[in-house]
Amino acid sequence: MHFVTAKSLLSAQNGMNIYRGCTHGCIYCDAQSDCYRMKHAFADVEVKQNAPDLLRAALSKKRKKCMIGTGSMSDPYMHCEEKLLLTRKCLQVIDEFGFGAAIQTKSDRILRDADLLQSINGNAKCVVQTTLTTFDDGLTSFIEPNVCSTNSRYLMLKQMQRLNIPTVVWISPVLPFINDTEKNLRGLLDYCFDANVKGIICFGFGTTMRSGSREPFYAALDKYFPQLKQRYIDVFGYAYNCVSPNHGKLMRVLNEQCEKYGVMHDTDKIFAYMRKFPERNKQTSIFDEIPS
User: Fold this and answer.
1) What is the pLDDT of residues 140-191, one digit of tens each?
2) 221-252: buried (b, 16+ CB within 10 Å) or exposed (e) per residue?
3) Cα-based angle 116, 120, 126 (whole degrees, multiple of 5)
4) Which of 277, 292, 258, 287 is nearest to 98 (CA)?
5) Sign (positive or negative) of CA dihedral 62, 13, 148, 39
6) Counting C-beta atoms within 10 Å of the first and last residue's C-beta, which end of the chain has fewer, N or C?
C-alpha cells in the first residue's frame, strides 16, 4: 500500500472511498477495469491518510444531515484497516456530527466497530451491506480468496440483527457455469431470511467483463476451472454483460421468495431507503395518530 494526501473525500452523492484498490482478490472484480484509470497496481492500495480530517471539514459545512455512503468501489474493511483504523475514525466523525451511514463490505472486520454502528443507528441511521455470491465456502475460497467465508458474513448479518442494525445483501455477481444454480441461490436466500435482512439487491444473474478485469478473470479460470475459459469465450465473446443461461429461472426464485418473506427486492426502492435520512425530531400532532 501507499499513502497520499487527498484534496477531497466526499462525492456529489455523499459517497466516500478511503482506500483505492483492493486486496480481497475476488476473481470477478470489475473495479480493476482499465476504464477507472488507476495509476497503480490494483493490490497496491492507495490510502487517503487525511480522510478523517477531510470528512470533518466536509460535514461541518453541510447545512442538512444526510447519509454518508462508503464501500462502492473499495472495501472500507480491507486487511490494512486493521492497523490504520481510518474507517473507524471516519465513523467517529459521522457519529459526532449526527449523520447517517450506509456501509458496504465483504468483511466481518466491521464487527470491530459495532459500538459506533449502534451509536450512529441510534442517533440517525446505519445500514450495513454485504455481498453474498457463493453458498459453498469451499468454492468461495477460489472465487473470493482473501475474504472471510460466506458463513462468516452470514454470522455478521446475524450480529447486526441482534443489534437492530438494518442490513442489505447484494447477490452479485453470480458466475455462469460456476455458481449460477438454484441450490446456490436458495442457500444464500436462507441465510438472508434467517438474518432478517431489509433488502436484497440483484441486478441479474451473471457477471461483467471488460479490459483490465477480463484478463485476471480468465487467468483464474485457467487455474481453478480448467477448460471453462474457452466456454466463456465461445458463449460470450467480448461482451460486457455475461448473462447466465439460468437468469430467468433464478430471478423468478429470488422474487417469489422475497415476496414470501417480505424482503425488499426492488433495487430502486432499496437505494431510496438507504439514501433517506430519518426525520427523528419531527414534532407529531394528534392528527398523526388518527388511523386512515
Assistant:
1) 999 999 999 999 999 999 999 999 999 999 999 999 999 999 999 999 999 9
2) beeebeebeeebeeebeeeeebbbebeeebbe
3) 105
4) 277
5) negative
6) C
Q: Which of 29, 22, 130 is nearest to 79 (CA)?
A: 22
d(CA 193, CA 210): 34
When the pLDDT of each residue in the chain is averaged and rounded to a whole number, the result is: 94
Question: What is the pLDDT at residue 283?
Answer: 41
Dihedral pair phi/psi, residue 27, rounded to 5°: -70, -20
Instruction: Give CB contacts under 8 A, 24+ apart, made by 31-40.
Output: 31/73, 31/74, 31/213, 32/212, 32/213, 32/216, 33/210, 33/211, 33/212, 33/213, 34/210, 34/211, 34/212, 35/210, 35/211, 35/212, 36/73, 36/212, 40/2
CA distance 118 to 116: 5
User: What is the predicted pLDDT for the residue at 280?
Assistant: 65
C-alpha cell at 41: 497496481
Strands laid side by side in the 15-16 sheet: 15-16, 67-70, 100-104, 126-131, 167-170, 199-201
pLDDT surpassing 50 at residue 32: yes
Please check whether residue 79 is in contact with residue 53, taking contact to mean a CB–CB distance below 8 angstroms: no
pLDDT at 72: 85
Q: Cell numbers 480448467 label which residue?
A: 226
Q: Specify whether the CB–CB gap between 47 and 3 falls below 8 A.
A: yes
Cβ-proximal residues to 59 (8 Å cutoff; 6+ apart), any chain? 68, 93, 94, 97, 99
SS (H, E, C) 171-209: CCCCCCCCCCCHHHHHHHHHHHHHCCCCEEECCCCEEEC
Strand-pair category, 206-208 with 241-243: antiparallel
pLDDT at site 290:
38
Q: Are 178 and 143 in contact (CB under 8 A)?
A: yes
